[in-house]
Amino acid sequence: MTQHDSDLPMELAAPARRALTQAGYLRLEQLTRVSEVELKQLHGIGPNAIKQLRSALSARGLSFAERK
């Protein structure tokens, strides 16, 4: 995978990036189908990663899915 395949934030820590890509999330749009609670269950996704992802989504007018 190259950075061109993904639009995840560049500042995202390596463990968080690995967790997302291993779960099949390469693009911010994909994160609109998952809730913060679900993402936090991935090993490597912590409060800082959620904050960075929320900010990146918000910048595009997007947000995480509502909790199910």
SS-based class: mainly alpha
Order of helices and strands: HHH
> What does the radius of gyration come to?
11 Å
Residue runs with pLDDT of under 50 for 5 or more positions:
none
- Strands, count: 0
Mean pLDDT: 92
Largest β-sheet summary: none
Strand composition percent = under 5%
- Tally of alpha and pi helices: 3
Secondary-structure topology with pairs:
Layout: H1 14-22, H2 36-40, H3 47-59
Give structural notes.
The protein contains three helices and no strands. The chain has 68 residues and is mostly helical. The longest helix has 13 residues, at 47-59. The mean pLDDT is 92.
Protein traits:
single chain, 68 residues, mainly alpha, 40% helix, globular
What's this model, at a glance?
The protein is mainly α and 68 residues long.
